[in-house]
């Protein structure tokens, strides 16, 4: 009897020990395997919150963008007046000058009405004459745009009404003609009476160069050669010149004088001829001029347009 008790009691203790160990292991394994699932749940919850935050941020930005007013549309222009252009506080010539915009300045224009452009120049906003603006930023300014603007500025400066200006509008005519061989024409100003005289203008390197020609008539040129012949004067004394237009400048090639006054200042039926200050025969005089100027190929310098027509050509 004692032997039997001795056998099963250790077995019972061992069995209880194994049950405790098994329970502990199962609990530990359950905890181990449950952690990834819980972590995944936490991660999914965080991701969901981030999506909600992004959606809310996008919605907020959308509402802010919808609430911000759109900037007024503008078009880019540039100043074609070589003397620059005034930007005024209002659309009239009596308004205060807000800023001066130099030649080829870039201007943003809101609208153009009645010849005035509502424009922005840098930090300044105001109004300027639309006649002196060209579409674009000036990067594609052509030679045509440049010489037209230069001639227009020159005419506006020297031609005025009956009480102002070197040339008076009612007493001068104009033309555009090709004296030299380039693709930019020369501008001609012809007075309507002798005392006004004539003016030949050429454009070169951003400047208008001029050749004043006294009195009227007797001026001709050979197209495409740059050669100009001018004969003027009165009271029996007639200076003659041949000029050469080249590289934007006028050079005198020959000067002569046909003088019907004798050495005492009395009028004579017979002329005396001079070339370069030296007296020559009539034959030599004519030969010297004919050697550099072919009169058979020359055309007279004339004016075919009034001021309004010229401005229209140059605009």
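Sequence proposed for the structure above (315 residues):
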């Amino acid at each position: 009897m004692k032997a039997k008790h001795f056998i099963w009691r250790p077995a019972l203790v061992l069995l209880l020990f194994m049950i405790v160990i098994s329970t502990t292991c199962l609990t530990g394994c359950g905890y181990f395997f449950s952690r990834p699932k819980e972590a995944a749940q936490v991660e999914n919850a965080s991701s969901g919150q981030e999506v909600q935050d992004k959606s809310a941020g996008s919605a907020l930005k959308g509402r802010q963008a919808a609430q911000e007013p759109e900037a007024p549309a503008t078009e880019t222009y540039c100043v074609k007046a070589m003397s620059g252009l005034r930007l005024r506080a209002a659309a009239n010539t009596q308004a205060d000058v807000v800023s001066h915009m130099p030649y080829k300045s870039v201007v943003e224009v809101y609208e153009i009405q009645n010849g005035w452009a509502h424009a922005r120049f840098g930090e300044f906003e105001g109004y300027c004459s639309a006649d002196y603006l060209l579409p674009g930023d000036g990067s594609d300014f052509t030679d045509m745009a440049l010489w037209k603007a230069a001639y227009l500025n020159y005419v506006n400066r020297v031609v005025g009404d009956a009480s102002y200006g070197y040339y008076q509008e009612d007493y001068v005519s104009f033309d555009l003609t090709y004296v030299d061989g380039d693709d930019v024409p020369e501008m001609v100003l012809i007075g309507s009476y002798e005392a006004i005289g004539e003016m030949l203008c050429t454009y070169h390197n951003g400047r208008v160069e001029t050749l004043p020609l006294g009195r009227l008539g007797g001026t001709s040129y050979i197209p495409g050669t740059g050669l100009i012949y001018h004969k003027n004067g009165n009271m029996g004394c007639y200076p003659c010149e041949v000029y050469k237009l080249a590289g934007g400048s006028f050079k005198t090639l020959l000067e002569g004088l046909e003088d019907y006054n004798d050495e005492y200042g009395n009028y004579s039926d017979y002329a005396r001829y001079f070339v370069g200050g030296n007296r020559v025969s009539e034959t030599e005089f004519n030969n010297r001029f004919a050697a550099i100027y072919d009169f058979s190929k020359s055309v007279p310098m004339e004016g075919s347009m009034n001021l309004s027509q010229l401005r229209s050509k140059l605009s």
